UniProtKB/TrEMBL annotation:
Signal peptide: none annotated. The gene is glf. GO terms for molecular function: flavin adenine dinucleotide binding; UDP-galactopyranose mutase activity. Its EC number is 5.4.99.9. GO terms for cellular component: cytosol. This is UDP-galactopyranose mutase. Belongs to the UDP-galactopyranose/dTDP-fucopyranose mutase family. PANTHER family: UDP-GALACTOPYRANOSE MUTASE (PTHR21197). Residues 147-348 form the UDP-galactopyranose mutase C-terminal domain.
Amino acid sequence: MKDFDFLVVGAGLFGATFARRAADCGMRSLVIDRREHVSGNCFTESVDGIDVHRYGPHIFHTASDRVWAFVRRFGEFNKYQHRGRVSYKGRLYSFPINLATLRQVWGVESAAEARERIATERVAIERPKSMKDWLLSQVGEELYEMFFRGYTLKQWGQDPANLPAEIARRIPIRMTENDRYFKDSSVHEGIPVEGYTNLVASILDAPQIRVELGVDYFSHREQLSRQARRVVFSGKIDQYFGYERGRLAYRSLRFDDERLQGDYQSVAIVNYTDEAVPFTRITEHKHFAPSSVNHTIVTREYSMPHDRCNEPYYPVRDAANNAVLAQYEKLAGGTSVVFGGRLASYRYLDMDQVIAQAIRKADSAMEGSLGRTLT
Ligand code: FAD
Ligand code: UDP
């Protein structure tokens, strides 16, 4: 008799949601994480009255009523709405590109004028596949240079000509006054009032769930696997298979914090699109929530390749890595392990997508054991 139905590797949003969904159906999970905290990359901690996003700024947004209802069971969200800013050659611009941006860049006065101007800027490219071609076909050379080329070069360590268009398709381009960052943001958006860490801790707070932190799956693999009927894995898929088909590439990040007095940039995030500025963005954490503190904490974010000493953050989904991934997916198909989350899927998934994936995968794993369909 096993102690647990599931051994869940990773206490991020994927692992927590999976374990909770299972607990709601009466099934028991042992959730482990090699880090000393729950909530994975959306981990936040309170420093001198400011909730600091330790692994980069995280803004929750979703078009799914189901995901929104799920997260709000476990915590309240504030009404933060993300509007971006870009700093390029010392001047600040509204971002994503909208009518205000085009007014700043070209002095256009109306949506009709903006549409007319951008039509003359667009480069005719049939079926653009790369990020560069897609952007040139949408906004033309000047806006591509100002807003995308330098940032992407720093963020990915590669020219946008070598990256897939999907990465930039996430960002809207509008000929209206709507300057909100996310395409789905008019639906549900916000930041957990008590921080992401408390939100995830609350998702995990069920009698059927035991959480053990500071435990690396690969150091105790056999002993841990013996305790549960099935393994759910949200770590790196290539590591799960001992890198036998090669290593999948990731971009990593370094975060440099500075504590200052007053207000630094008046908004939560400013992207630095100049190639000459070494960091990609500055986050000023107190602007994610109403705050009355007189000091501030700002974080500069630097991008770099992933190696054995740093964390994997962004999967590099180019053709070579996709081919390696396909081999791991085939190996995964031959096991009973449930793979999910950003690292095991090797996909650029937002938090809401990870939650939706975990609910789907948990339901399908449990339907197998319970012999009935879950609603
Ligand atoms: P993770 O959060 O990475 O959790 C996986 C966990 O597994 C980790 O805690 C890790 O320690 C653990 N683990 C791995 N291997 C092992 C092992 N061998 N043994 C034990 N434990 C292990 N999404 C949004 O929706 N909005 C945003 O604004 C946003 N901003 C982002 C900014 C940055 C800089 C990054 C990198 C991501 C951002 N995301 C954002 C995406 C978001 O972080 C992910 O969707 C989400 O955190 C993925 O959850 P996860 O559980 O799949 O993975
Ligand atoms: N991007 C850019 N300039 C910006 C912001 C984003 O070129 O000011 C590009 C960059 O390649 C980035 C991608 O668009 O990786 C997606 O941006 P998003 O803000 O969604 O990335 P994330 O918040 O996940 O880092």
